[in-house]
Amino acid sequence: MNKMKNDLYLRTLRGEKVERTPIWVMRQAGRYLPEYREVRKQAGDFLTLCKTPELACEVTMQPIDRFGLDAAILFSDILTIPDAMGLELVLEEGIGPVFNKPVRSEAQIHKLSVPDAEDDLGYVMDAVRVIRKELDGRVPLIGFTGSPWTLASYMVEGSGSKDFRRIKGLMFESPQAAHTLLQVVTDSVISYLKAQVAAGVQSLMVFDTWGGVLSTADYKVFSLAYMQQIVSALKSDEMTKDIPVVLFTKGGGPWLEMMADTGCDGLGLDWTVDIADAKARVGDRVVLQGNMDPVLMNTGQQQVRDHAMLVLEGYGQHEQSDKGHIFNLGHGIQPFAHPDNMQALVETVQGNSQQFHKQADVTQTND
């Protein structure tokens, strides 16, 4: 591969001191972009878009070409693994992801097996390879997965949920069955992430979208323990041990210390977390990523600029003792966001964050 032209994101995740704060945005390739909507229309539906490597590459590149962000994220979906397990994912307009064959019995749980990452999910790996070639070293490529708890929630509920009564019912009434389900999902996630790395991703994110619906005690046992397995498996494998891993639990503010204990490289913060407080709690152990409220992207450019500065100021000066900050939203960008606001956000962070890096001795390396 060619030398990385912009490795700011990777250097930050390695704990190196950098000249400014890197920025990328969760769900940065999405419906808020008119060019994305055109490609999705061409594909016919979301899953075809995900499963066609050339189209997945095209939409992955769109926000990089348009805004000059500091990292690309693979265009895919967190529910690819359950789909490959035979649950038959469909995306229904106005409803979202739905499984035609949800997991509703212990017998179904025991029939589940780990998909072959190259055979059953080969379209994802093909997309990674096509995207890396197209990126040509411009910026790093992020791979990702849903957390075992989040994937299991969708698998048992059959779709999104407001009360999570089915997955929580399984957890409370048949904890051993819940653990059996979570373990096969965890084994699948580990295999899937390793395959993404082999195909070419340079960083990994685990999206624990629904971890925040759990109590602290249940979070430790049914979500965090399985993310710990993932981090440990990746860090103990020669191929993946140097690939940075970022964990993100929506609603996970109370548990940052426990999350940092996993040995991950970074923690995503949702918008409810005070970033200065998070820095004081874990900033000398992990890189922090976040955490502007995504609703701001639906407002005006001045509001975006002002609040971006508040996040940068909240993190404050980058000292030798802290690990660093990657700017992001506190969750995914929303379909009604204004593209001009993304431009304003990127310009604000890239143009104003240098002042917060003066206290650190900047080191420059190239991949």
Give the H and E element order.
HHHHEHEEHHEHHHEHEHEHEHEH
Strand order of the largest sheet: 1-4-5-6-7-8-9
Number of helices: 15
**What is the count of β-strands?**
9
Distance between the termini: 9 Å
- Which structural category do the helix and sheet elements fall into? alpha/beta
Rg over CA atoms, rounded to whole Å, is 19 Å
Q: How many domains comprise the coordinates?
A: 1
- CATH architecture verdict: Alpha-Beta Barrel
What does this structure look like?
- Strand 2 and strand 3 form a beta hairpin.
- The chain has 15 helices and nine strands.
- It has 367 residues and is α/β, with parallel strands linked by helices.
- The longest helix has 25 residues, at 175-199.
- The strands form two sheets. It has a seven-stranded parallel sheet with strand order 1-4-5-6-7-8-9. A two-stranded antiparallel sheet has the order 2-3.
- The mean pLDDT is 95.
- It has a single domain (8-356), classed as TIM Barrel.
Task: Write a brief caption for the model.
The protein is of the alpha/beta class and 367 residues long.
Strand-helix topology:
Blueprint lengths: L7 H6 L20 H10 L2 H5 L2 H15 L4 E2 L6 H8 L1 E4 L3 E4 L6 H6 L10 H14 L5 E6 L1 H10 L7 H9 L1 H25 L3 E6 L7 H20 L9 E5 L6 H5 L5 E3 L6 H8 L4 E6 L8 H15 L9 E5 L9 H14 L15
Parallel strand pairs: 1-4, 4-5, 5-6, 6-7, 7-8, 8-9
Antiparallel strand pairs: 2-3
